[in-house]
Write a structure and sequence with these properties.
about 10% helix; Cupin domain-containing protein; RmlC_Cupin_sf; 4 helices; 2 domains; Jelly Rolls; 7-stranded mixed sheet; GPI/OXD; metal-binding; Cupin_2
Length: about 325
């Protein structure tokens, strides 16, 4: 057994992943599906690792002033900022609240609310995403205005969850209608959460987590985490001072994602070095260890599935 490793420089983007791919302001984003099929609506999306993990790992890369349109998920959606400066916003029209996140910060967004995000930095930047469940809840739920805007620019989402580009002459197949928009009655089930609810519950700042991880890894998301959520996976942050060269194993696949610095990953019969933007999937039952391989700042996110259902997160 050996880890599966996806290098940052080998990531294969999809620029037509979602219904807003032609909508001005959202038409330059890139979507990456690293582990699992994710929620992409495009047949052009490349999946790097198909082995089920109990969760999905993806990423979004966007130039400055590019945004991802308002949407919701049926399972958890967690982001950490790999590079740049990002504004996350939420609500039916995106005006219920917002928060700005910097490199290393993490946000656990409750299910059942519309959310979007925008690169507000000065360079191309990337955020890494964790979605609950192997099928990530079956897809994206778009705010009605997103579907309307997309149609004005040639993209139609079928009820089968697939995109059709009318500018390229594509049409919905026989027997397949357009994805229905949420009704006003259905929209009433999507709460307008306050900044205190979303930020206070689900946002943790990188440097605060580094302080907590001084002597041992800090559990960021989990039943006993600093975000007390049970979305079907746990997230830990490991730093230079809390890393160990002692090998260990899990009974299921685990994922290592460096946020800062270079990390040496070793296992029986092999070793490699991971850098920010790389993703390593370690098979269950494989003894391994990871620690910083160079001087300087170093932090790594560790993700492993739990036996908790991957369904809706609830603010506690």
């Amino acid at each position: 057994m050996t880890p599966d490793i996806v290098r940052y420089g080998e990531l294969r983007p999809c620029k037509t992943a979602f219904i807003d791919a032609h909508t001005p302001g959202s038409d330059r984003k890139e979507n990456f599906t690293i582990i699992g099929g994710g929620v992409s609506e495009s047949a052009d999306q490349f999946v790097h690792i198909t082995t089920p993990h109990g969760f999905n790992i993806g990423a979004a890369g966007q130039p400055p002033k590019c945004r991802n349109s308002l949407h919701s998920h049926r399972t958890a959606e967690v982001f950490f900022v790999l590079s740049g400066r990002w504004r996350f916003f939420w609500g039916r029209h995106g005006d219920a609240g917002e928060v700005v996140l910097e490199e290393g910060d993490i946000i656990d967004i409750p299910t059942g609310i519309f959310r979007g995000f925008e690169n507000i930095g000065t360079d191309y930047a990337m955020i890494m995403a964790i979605l609950g469940g192997d099928d990530a809840g079956g897809g994206v739920i778009w705010a009605p205005q997103v579907i309307e805007d997309a149609a004005d620019h040639g993209l139609v989402l079928g009820a089968n969850g697939k995109l059709y580009d009318t500018k390229r002459g594509e049409r919905l197949p026989a027997g397949v209608g357009p994805m229905p928009k949420l009704t006003e009655a259905e929209l009433a089930d999507y709460p307008e959460m306050s900044p205190m609810q979303v930020v206070g519950w689900g946002v943790r700042r990188y440097w605060d987590m580094v302080a907590l991880a001084k002597d041992k890894p800090v559990k960021v998301i989990g039943a006993t985490g600093i975000i007390r959520d049970r979305p079907g996976f746990e997230v830990d942050l490991i730093t230079r001072s809390s890393a160990t060269e002692t090998r260990h194993r899990h009974d299921r696949p685990s994922v290592l994602m460096p946020a800062k610095g270079h990390w040496k990953l070793v296992w029986e019969g092999g070793e490699t070095v991971l850098a920010p933007g790389d993703t390593a999937s370690v098979p269950g039952g494989l003894d391994h260890a990871a620690w910083p391989s160079m001087e300087g700042e170093a932090a790594l996110y560790h993700v492993v599935a739990t036996d908790d259902p991957a369904g809706p997160s609830a603010i506690g």
